[in-house]
Amino acid sequence: MLNPEAGIYRVGLFDSDFEIGYNSAAAKNLLDFLFQDLPPTGGTVADRRFDVVMAGNPVQMSLWLDEKRYYHGTSRHELASILVNEIIYSCIFGNCRDHAIHAAAISIGSRGLLFPGTSGSGKSSLAAWLTANGCNYLTDELAMVTADGIIQPFTRPLCLKLPSFQILAQHFPFREVDILHGASGAMIPHRCLNQQWQPQSATVDAIIFPRYVKDHPGALTPISSAQSCLKIIGCFVNARNMADHGIHHIASLARQVASYELQFGSYEVILPALQPLLADTR
Amino acid sequence: MTTLLDSHIPVLNSDFKTEQFDNEILLYSVTSTLAVYLNQTAMMVYGLCDGNNSVGDIITTLETAYPEQISSIRADVTDSLQQLVDLGAIRLSA
Fold first, then answer.
1. Strand runs (DSSP E) across chain A, as ranges?
2. Does B22 contact chain A (CB < 8 Å)?
3. Class of the CATH domain delimited by A99-278
4. What is the ipTM of this complex?
């Protein structure tokens, strides 16, 4: 007998579409939560097929990639994290055209601010705070940057570590029903922080390397193009897909826009430190 | 650590490529997935490593070009060369 709740969810990313099978309304709700801002592109459908299965009471969940089970358990957060990471990996794996940069990004009009950084640098916290203060959220994890500087973001819910989420929740009391909690953190739909959100195209206008430093009062320091290039290389995820590791293109990007290092020790110091870049004067 | 002698001749490792910025240079090797940023001094030193100049020649060249900095040039050159040797971007030929 056909399951009326089962279906195929299609996620579009960087000219590719991914199919994710689901078996229940709960599973589809989770996929909506994660991927509602990544509609199908109509491009090539990837060979890899994911399946999310939820059943039982209490609910047991499984994540499958083709014939291999990637997760089985009771944590939506854990399943969601693995699925998102696998989708990202699948997108990057064969991409030799655009530059996949481990970065958060927001936009102000058509101006894109790119925040490259490795895990723990404060990217997601920055993106959350800026989004809550009127900036347009693009991503907190991965930006594909085209040769002409256009940001193609992986727009997913913001993923905050527990301490960062707890502090943010003091400023913005979230509805529990909106948040996906896990043992190590929480996923927050960006619309909870900025209901005016719209999908926007943005071009890199400045590159800011965030560095969380406990109790730091906040400082924005210009850095040279060469230093910027070196730092981006450290966040350049698909470098090995590119001729000469794509360094020439990364260098070109670093030459074209101003780069900074941002040190911050709390949410409150972010806006004053970034003020020169946030003013929509251009 | 290699002891630098004035008679050593630094030879570039052809695996390394450069990306030039205004007053800086990025040196990188695709095969060893290494990248390093060189400041202006290191950039000039690297530029003089043509396989013919010895360490002493490089020091003399820069002392002649920048006589006002003569007191610090030897240390700057040897520091820069040591950094390049450690990175594998140059080797020293006797």
1. 7-13, 16-22, 44-55, 60-65, 68-73, 99-108, 111-116, 136-139, 142-145, 150-153, 158-161, 180-181, 185-188, 202-212, 219-223, 258-264
2. yes
3. alpha beta
4. 0.77
Neighbour-count burial for B55-87, b at 16+ CB within 10 Å, e otherwise = bebbbbbbeeeeeeeeeebbebbbebbebbbeb
Range of the structural domain that residue B19 is part of: 9-89
The CATH number for B73's domain is: 3.90.930
pLDDT digits over A183-237, tens only?
Answer: 999 999 999 999 989 888 899 999 999 999 999 999 999 999 999 999 999 999 9
CB contact under 8 Å between B21 and A229, yes or no, is yes
Beta carbons of B35 and A233 less than 8 Å apart: yes
How many Å is the Cα radius of gyration of chain B?
13
Read off the pLDDT band of A282 (50, 70, 90).
very low
Distance from CA of A207 to the nearest CA of B (A): 17
Interface test with B, best of A225, A232, A248, A257 (most B CBs within 10 A): A225
